Amino acid sequence: MIGIIFGPPGSGKGTQAARIEDAFRLKHLSTGDILRAEVARGTPVGKEVGRIMAAGDLVPDELIVDIVRGRLPEAEAGEGVLLDGFPRTVGQAQALDNMLSDEGHKVDFVVALDVPEAELVDRLLHRAEVEGREDDTRQAIEERMHEYHKLTEAVLDHYRRKGVPVQLVSGVGSPDQVFGRIRRAVGISSA
Ligand code: AMP
């Protein structure tokens, strides 16, 4: 089972991914978490991407695709994988599809969280106070929203065209309410 949790910055992907991971026994693979760990460890990749991330821009497709290619086989060894923050461009989606089809796999579902933009900005500014993430400044938030509309939204059409079920779920409300909607939309009973 390969699922994608999709949505704009601040839509609650990370929070919901943790719940989906537990309930559906999928391995959570967050490219943002992987990159933040590289930056924190000061690895060559971390040095390359630190400034790009702080500005709210997307890191190059080749770099992120290589990272996912390196991690996917281990993640796929279990019952399934939940991708969070990837793919973020149609080029990444095509690269993912090719990686999966080499193994005889495909994307089984996409859950797309939907939250009004004003609420997203409020949430991210609040997160800045709580977590101190470097890219939760007003300017970086604007850039991330811009990248989302310019490059990432098109990924949903890519999967719709391929016949992959894309479930739009309202991300407004408590984490439990949102998770209840995801559970109903994806239609998998918990393990
Ligand atoms: P996230 O935690 O998913 O919001 O990601 C934080 C930042 O990491 C993004 O703003 C990008 O700079 C970078 N990033 C994470 N995933 C990707 C991806 N799939 N493609 C390009 N950049 C990414």
Please describe what this structure looks like.
- The chain is an alpha/beta fold and 191 residues long.
- The chain has one domain (2-185): P-loop containing nucleotide triphosphate hydrolases (Rossmann fold).
- It has helices spanning 13-24, 31-41, 44-55, 61-76, 90-102, 117-131, 138-152, 154-161, 175-186; strands at 2-6, 27-30, 81-84, 109-114, 166-170.
- Helix 1 (13-24) packs across helix 9 (175-186), helix 2 (31-41) crosses helix 3 (44-55) and helix 4 packs parallel to helix 5.
- The radius of gyration is 16 Å and the shape is globular.
- Adenosine monophosphate binds next to helix 2 and helix 3.
Task: Sum this structure up briefly.
The chain has 191 residues and is α/β, with parallel strands linked by helices. The chain has nine helices and five strands, in the order E-H-E-H-H-H-E-H-E-H-H-H-E-H. It has a five-stranded parallel sheet, sandwiched between helices.
Look at the helices and sheets and give the structural class.
Answer: alpha/beta
Order of helix and strand elements from N to C terminus: EHEHHHEHEHHHEH
Bound molecule types: adenosine monophosphate
* Overall 3D shape: globular
Amount of beta strand: 5-15%
The whole-number mean of residue pLDDT values reads 94
N-C termini distance: 13 Å
Low-confidence stretches: none
Computed CA radius of gyration, to the nearest angstrom: 16 Å
CATH architecture: 3-Layer(aba) Sandwich
Structurally, how many domains make up the residues?
A: 1
Strands ordered across the widest β-sheet: 2-3-1-4-5
